[in-house]
Amino acid sequence: MLIRILLVLTASIFFVSAACATPTEIVKKTVDEVVHIVADKEMKKNDVKRRQALKKAISVIFDYTEMAKRSLGKHWNVRTAAEKKHFAELFATLLENSYAGKIESYNNERIVYIKDIVEDEYAEVKSKVVTAARDEFTLDYRLFKQNGKWMVYDVIIEGVSLVSNYRSQFNKIITANGYEKLVKKLESKSEELKAP
Q1: pTM metric for this prediction
Q2: Per-residue pLDDT tens digits for 40-56
Q3: Which of 30, 64, 82, 133 is the most exposed place for a label (fewest CB within 10 A)?
């Protein structure tokens, strides 16, 4: 869904020094950059260049390893270091490609930032997306401070956690068919999504 993509892309586009930026400022900077890329007339003429710019923007403030770890849940700790690295890379590719593909259908939705809640090293940025038809969807970002920088580790769309959703799907596949089957599915999906 467009909203889902906006959330993920919004929270992961542009490096901003966390020492002086609030979580909301970081998310807003990301969303603004994504919208700028999608709306750019020159970028619209070059699918490859646009997709690369979107993926680069998205990858800056999303902590894919933390998201992958939380999405794999109890199955993460039993993985080897090499398996964890490979899974995090597959997870990053899945998010980057699927969300970049969806954000490209952006159609002048308005993003309203409501507030951020900060508790020690964790924060949540509450926002909503307002469509041209005045429909509204909540879009919240969960961040944590890593090495002095706010990083997104989950996106909540209409009350549904992206990470929890993936964890449920991944757990079903692993329980039924094993971890290797999940990896093969993600590898296959990554190949499908590579081309813009």
Answers
A1: 0.79
A2: 888 888 888 887 888 88
A3: 133
